[in-house]
From TrEMBL:
Organism expressing this protein natively: Hyphomicrobium sulfonivorans
Gene3D superfamilies noted in UniProt: 3.30.1490.270, 3.40.50.11290
Protein's name in the database: Protein containing domains DUF404, DUF407
InterPro entries listed in its UniProt record: ATP-dep_Glu-Cys_Ligase-2, CP_ATPgrasp_2, UCP005522
PANTHER family: BLR5612 PROTEIN, SLL1039 PROTEIN
Sequence ranges assigned to domain Circularly permuted ATP-grasp type in this UniProt record: 64-440
Lineage of origin: Bacteria, Pseudomonadati, Pseudomonadota, Alphaproteobacteria, Hyphomicrobiales
Amino acid sequence: MYGSGEGVRPPYHAVAEWLGTQALGDLRQKLADAETMFRRTGITFAVYGSEDTSERLIPFDIIPRIISAAEWRKLAAGIEQRVRALNAFMFDIYHRQEIIRAGKVPEELIVSNSAFVPEMMGVSVPLGIYSHIIGIDIVRTGESDFFVLEDNTRTPSGVSYMLENRETMMHMFPDLFARNRVAPVENYPENLLKTLESVAPTGLKGEPTIALLTPGQFNSAYYEHSFLADQMGAELVEGRDLAVIDGYLQMKTTQGPRRIDVLYRRIDDDFLDPLVFRSDSVLGVPGLFDLYRAGRVTIVNAPGGGIADDKAIYSYIPEIIKFYTGRAPILQNVPTYNCRKADDLKYVLEHLPELVVKEVHGSGGYGMLVGPTASSSEIEVFRAKLMANPSNYIAQPTLALSTSPTMVEAGVAPRHLDLRPFVLVGDEVRMTAGGLTRVAMRAGSLVVNSSQGGGTKDTWVLQD
């Protein structure tokens, strides 16, 4: 909010004035009211492997994160460039593999990667799009320096929090909205529906039938699954509700089978079809993948899309963008050491206390080392892991992430944050202004993931 410390940055003027008129007790009451609203809505999540198996609320902060219109225009241009390049990369990898033949990406990094799905080789996908719903995690290190921390091209989550955060803020602080021209986010479900409809199989008569495939109510993101299905007017289904009948994917109903044309899946590749992937899966549908290859149903996001958000591939994204767009990246990567390279591994082992080390397939803040806050024993444990399996890790410098004013127990204090804009790719690229701001609620913490105690904020993109 204060930038370099010389005064309040222009985008925050109205919020700073508002904060100056608020009593701390009133803000605390508003925070309690917001928590009550979230509990009534039922917007909770579960942490896998936790001894406490109860559903939890993600902490919500009532002070919004502000992005100016000019900042957003630059971000949006960079994000669109990136998602187009990522989809071009996926199409190439599963067809001619020209980027490998050009020597821009090592072949072994693709073919030996657990996220690569060889069954997708040569499969024609509608409009050539593999990842239709993408979350790009962005961090800021100064007043103008945005970096992409990672790409989420499989089944990115969190959009329901973006929408509920906005609804809660509009209900609680209408006077604050009156002081600012804030870009809307509530059109996301409508844009998601348009995107899903645009990639339906060809030759359909009438509007396509869309279903959202969920693992079920015990999944940590089940609230989001049911929320999005309801908002779109789509069917919410589990694998047991579906079957291959008469050569098509059909949903079992009391009136008989009903054909499904687009399946927005929220389960991992391995569980989609027990006849092709994991034979013990009860979450998917036997025969689904054959229908997909035949063009009789569209799966969103496509199987095999994880090859583009693999953290080992991440370090090659700038080259990937140049290769497919002919232009330099608008948004830069965080400098990354790929531990499969001998020189990079040597540097990482020598500088572990200074670096953040991540598993290439890790997510949710798990399987990572934050060197500056780690104990000597934790560092040594990671040193052994790196030496035993270096190709499983990447490392990055510890960034001085930007902070935003946040309501904590002691009052208003700075906390580190990131941003996950959600991008929809189909017949066009549709982007919601803003996204989900995730905030580390503990002082000094750089880990914003909800599973690690992080919270969320409403993200305001100001309009000109």
